[in-house]
Amino acid sequence: MIRGKGSDRTASSARGAQGAPKGGPGPHGSSPPVGNWLFAGGDGRLTAYACTPRGLLRWTEAAAPRTGWTGPEPFEVEGWVGPASMARSREGYVHFVALRSRDADSGSPEVIVSTQFQPGRGMMDWRGLETPGLRGGPDDDSLSGPPRIAVNQRSGSTHVLVSLRHSGILRRSRNAEGAWGGWKPVSGQPYRGDVTPLMPSGGTLEVLAPGQGHADRWTGMGQGRFGLADRIPTPVVPGSAAVCETGPRRATYFWRYPGDGSLVAWRAPRQGVQGGLMGLGGAGGRGAPGVARAVLGGYDCTVLAQIGADGDVEVTAYVTENEGYGTWWASLGGHGARAPQVAVDAAGRVVVAAFDEEGAPMCTRQDTAAGGLAFGPWEYLA
Predict the structure, then answer these.
(1) Confidence class of residue 63 from pLDDT cuts 50, 70 and 90?
(2) Least confident range of 7-11, 242-246, 261-265, 367-371
(3) Residues 6+ apart with CB under 8 A from 212
(4) Residue 60: is its pLDDT beyond 90?
(5) Of the residues 59, 176, 205, 341, which has the maximum number of CB atoms within 10 A of its CB?
(6) 324 phi and psi, to 5 degrees?
């Protein structure tokens, strides 16, 4: 494993998958979705998504015994505004939320949702949820960040969240039977930027919202009400937050500290569990990290991938919820990439994916025969 004190990029057991692949496909005009865009389906196959000016692109791992990927498959949406954000259920369903224009003249946006139930299969028709307070005029309320979506891992219910510049954070939820409720407040306090939601298994819906010089965590209090659970006295680099469920009813958040661009982790302190603000090194990096849990050497580990100070994809891993032992970052090459993701494939291998400079997705897989957290070469998805 990559494990140890400090943030020395050279001290690691990882073999870097150096360099981006050569002679790959040309640009697809695609861009990364907001948050996660690489998911394992119910059959273990991975699916990757990208946003285009007209909708989504999808790449799907081929079914055994074939290898490689199929795609890109386009899914165009009339009036598409984008970008999309996504979340996965425990069954491997992928839920989507995005924006489309309801009026070709005004461009007034509407929140829309869809679902993919199986890898490689079609998506459900997009359903419009409207959005209160959005009128498109200069004096009207407007989104301060992209819409986000979270899934209840036990019941399968979904929660769509929007952050408005004047009205605060709102949510609209669909229950396990498929019925949607109305828009309800999470926070009357407005936030200027993206919010990061998660609903840990057995827990309540919670949302991290960066403020001016601090970050707020709002949690469900029962009967549809939310309360401010924590005000974390640290600034957050905009667009750098990510979240991972790291224990029973526990979420760990990750973001960049603006002083040096390093990553930090934060978890609500609980008895017997390390919590609070914890440094993870990776100074000089940019953007949000990719994060997933994987079994490495028989241990439940958290694996992070980031774009480092030199522009390469870097990876680190540590025993889950043991950030205090320190992290070592190792380069995987892929210079110029962006929006890294981490997932685990059907064979239990860690997969790190990213978009290259031209918007084409590529990935590198753990080489389990080499021992430790070693990776093979970068390959384009198609």
Answers:
(1) confident
(2) 7-11
(3) 192
(4) yes
(5) 341
(6) -65, -20
Q: What are the b/e assignments for 361-371, b being 16+ CB within 10 Å?
A: bbbbbbbeeee
Is residue 309 within 8 A of residue 261, CB to CB? The reply is yes
C-alpha 146/C-alpha 205 separation (Å) is 18
Mean pLDDT calculated for residue range 318-331: 94
Q: Which residues pair with 354 in a beta bridge?
A: 362
Based on the structure, what is the number of domains in the chain? Answer: 1
Exposed, middle or buried by CB within 10 Å (0-12, 13-18, 19+), for 105? exposed
Q: What is the largest CA-CA distance in the chain?
A: 60
d(CA 199, CA 174) in angstroms, rounded, equals 14
Which pLDDT tens digit goes with each residue over 266-318? 999 988 888 999 999 999 999 999 999 999 999 999 999 999 999 999 999 99
Where does 119-245 have alpha helices with state H? none
Would you state the torsion angle of the CA atoms of residues 4, 9, 11, 14, taken in this order, to the nearest 10 degrees?
Answer: 90
Residue 181 inside a domain? The answer is no
pTM above threshold 0.85:
yes
Query: pLDDT value at position 5?
Result: 32
pLDDT in tens, 212-230: 999 999 999 988 899 999 9
- Which residues make Cβ contacts (< 8 Å) with residue 367, sequence separation at least 6? 15, 374, 375, 376
Within a domain: residue 360?
Answer: yes
How is 162-191 classified by DSSP, letter by letter? Answer: EEETTTEEEEEEE-TTS-B---EEEESS--
Joined together, the tokens standing for residue 250 give: 């526990």
pLDDT at 147 over 50: yes
Q: Which two tokens stand for residue 112?
A: 């829309």
Q: Is residue 274 situated within a structural domain?
A: yes
List all residues 6 or more positions away from 365 whose beta carbon is below 8 Å from its beta carbon: 345, 349, 350, 351, 375, 376
| C-alpha span between 222 and 218 (Å, rounded) | 12
Question: What is the domain range of residue 247?
Answer: 1-30+238-382
Please count the other Cβ atoms lying within 10 Å of the Cβ belonging to residue 139.
7
Q: Which two tokens stand for residue 237?
A: 């680099």
Residue 323 lies inside a defined structural domain of this protein: yes
